[in-house]
Amino acid sequence: MRNFTCVNDIGDLRQAVSEALAIKADRFSMQHLGRNKTLMMVFFNSSLRTRLSTQKAAMNLGMNVIVLDVNQGAWKLETERGVIMDGDKSEHLLEAIPVMGSYCDVIGVRSFARFESKEDDYGEKILQQFIRYSGRPVFSMEAATRHPLQSLADLITIEEHKLTERPKVVMTWAPHPKALPQAVPNSFAEWMCATDYDFVITHPEGYELDPEFTRGARIEYDQDKALQGADFVYAKNWAAYTDPNYGKILSRDRSWTVTAEKMALTNNAFFMHCLPVRRNMIVSDDVIESPRSLVIPEAANREISAQLVLKRILESL
Ligand code: AN0
Ligand code: CP
């Protein structure tokens, strides 16, 4: 595997999960793979889990790690070609990317949707430039439209906890005070549609995602109906995708918050969220603290998903 940006890059999912579980059982046996290899992680946005879990995964593999927070201490970067750079941006991405590539063997990039242009966001303008100009394998640490390291960790978590071969997995929209990208729900939908699970998405009208990611899923606008018989409840907020509301908040309806009453409709479901989560907006305190909440093991599996991806990339060098 050279680049990792979406579900197709990982190949067979059963094989990926079994490889991930083998890594989890013995995570320090591949130190030779990363010896004298350097990972560079480039963050255009904040992170807790992705930064720590990916660095840990790289260290498990014997790699050296460099982290760059683009917004803290680096030169302000211009991303548009053709601009007369007489403003506050001192350097162009088109120089910065190959320079970064010259100091490392593998690059991870976090670059969220900016909600300025749907075309730029859905064209993955920043991530694609890293792939094109860095000369290195590139993996997404959440880009504008997908968060594949998260979805892989989510899949591993479901496989570890499922009690039936084909669980019912329900992804529900939940309210949030700020406009959030569609990357996590797009990606989760894309990965769930690649399994044979019974996968249902529920959200208020107007929050339809890009069908490219949801094809094969059932959409149910009635949250209570969707939750009936669920084995896993995956909560996430996202801003509207469809025009003319791209990037806008259309609802703050707290009747969509995942509460104990909502969970009572399910088949004693596990609760999942990628974190960070706003309590009592997305999920009530009692649900996230309950024994059915998987948020901590789910976050712990980010180390495993990152290690699987880095291992595969290192094997291809
Ligand atoms: C981000 C998002 O919703 O995409 C990152 C989630 C992993 N969340 C926030 O910005 C709160
Ligand atoms: N889930 C996730 O990617 O968390 P961070 O934004 O903290 O990295």
Report the mean per-residue pLDDT as an integer.
Answer: 98
Give the helices and strands as they follow along the chain.
HEHEEEHEHHEHEHEHEHEHEHH
- Which spans have pLDDT < 50 for at least 5 consecutive residues? none
Adjacency order of strands in the biggest sheet = 9-8-7-10-11
* CATH architectural name of the largest domain: 3-Layer(aba) Sandwich
Tell me, what's the shape?
A: globular
The overall strand count is 11
Supply the number of structural domains. Answer: 2
Distance between the termini: 9 Å
CATH superfamily membership of the largest domain: Aspartate/ornithine carbamoyltransferase
Discrete helix count? 12
Catalogue the ligands.
N-acetyl-L-norvaline, phosphoric acid mono(formamide)ester
Task: Using the CA coordinates, give the radius of gyration.
Answer: 20 Å
> Could you describe the largest sheet, including whether it forms a barrel?
5 strands, parallel
The percentage of residues in β strands lies in 5-15%
The CATH topology of the largest domain turns out to be: Rossmann fold
Q: According to CATH, what is the class of the largest domain?
A: Alpha Beta
